[in-house]
Design brief:
about 300 residues; alpha/beta; Arginase, Chain A; 8-stranded parallel beta sheet; 8 helices; globular; binds manganese (II) ion
């Protein structure tokens, strides 16, 4: 299998980014969401793209490695969670400077990764999770199960160190009644997409910074990007394409601004469905670019 941007398959002591895929989409609420194909597809697409980022960094000079995909057994959730945990535990050169980069998969893939990273952070008041998503994913159960991409924020909330002080969801615009009620009860914090439009990108960045910087000058931040945070006019290849999303450029700007203020300890890109993409693969190209641009901001 090709590696992301031809990065080497093994880490060493200089590694700054560890990329890996979780080809797991069976906890999606949609039948045709084939996001398990995305890690492989984005690697292939990365070969067709330019080797510099927008701000002019040479991607081939990045100290990154691509460890490939975690082997997933779609029928067994707890086994998969365990496999993901074991995979992450085994990473040999995992040091404090390394940034984990996960390519999903549906949004549930975020849960085991955040849990792994969060468990490792010594001072929990330094830790934060920022999610870009059209949804809050805040059902407590979905069709009788605790484990679904629609419950992922609730499962994160179940972790003792995640709460309304360190989990923030940005770009929301498709929240169901039950979720709204749950969100009120738990005082879940989120910023709707229309408000981003009203207050502008600078103020949005400021609000995110103020939210996470209450207890720490430079919080350790995990960022999860559900591709559906973007407007479907630029990212149609996803299960729930909801109008009114933010633009690629605005997301790019927000992330670029944020990176300077936080220590990014990991990020992910989830919910891209290749089978729902256009023939020119625009959503998958967009996702590939987002990942590598995000890496370039951390480097620069
Ligand atoms: Mn979503």
């Amino acid at each position: 299998m090709k590696s992301f941007f031809d990065f080497k398959g093994q880490c060493d002591e200089n590694t700054e980014f560890i990329i890996f895929g979780i080809p797991w989409d069976s906890l999606s609420s949609l039948e045709n969401a084939d996001s398990a194909l995305t890690p492989k597809n984005l690697r292939e697409i990365s070969y067709e793209l330019a080797r510099t980022t927008e701000i002019g960094l040479d991607i081939t000079s990045f100290n990154a490695c691509d460890l490939g995909d975690i082997e997933i057994d779609s029928s067994d959730t707890s086994k998969n969670i365990k496999k993901i945990e074991e995979f992450l535990k085994k990473i040999e050169y995992f040091n404090k400077k390394v940034v984990l980069v996960m390519i999903g998969g549906d949004h549930f893939c975020t849960f085991p990764v955040v849990k792994f990273i969060g468990d490792m952070v010594e001072k929990k008041e330094d830790f934060g999770v920022l999610i870009f998503d059209a949804h809050v994913d805040f059902y407590d159960t979905w069709e009788g199960s605790k484990f679904s991409h629609t419950t992922v924020s609730h499962r994160l909330y179940d972790l003792e160190y995640i709460n309304n002080e360190n989990l923030f969801i940005v770009g929301t615009r498709d929240i169901d009644n039950i979720e709204l009620e749950n969100a009120k009860n738990e005082n879940l914090r989120y910023l709707n997409a229309y408000k981003i439009d009203e207050i502008g990108i600078q103020q949005t960045t400021t609000e995110i910074m103020q939210f996470f910087k209450k207890y720490s000058k430079k919080p350790k931040l995990y960022v999860s990007i559900d591709i559906d945070v973007l407007d479907p006019s630029i990212a149609p290849g996803t299960g729930y394409a909801i109008a009114g999303g933010i633009s690629y450029r605005n997301l790019w700007k927000i992330i670029r601004n944020l990176v300077k203020e936080f220590e990014i300890i990991g990020f992910d890109l989830v919910e891209v469905s290749p089978g729902l993409d256009l023939p020119n693969k625009m959503t998958q190209i967009c996702a590939t670019k987002l990942i590598v641009e995000f890496m370039s901001f951390i480097k620069s």
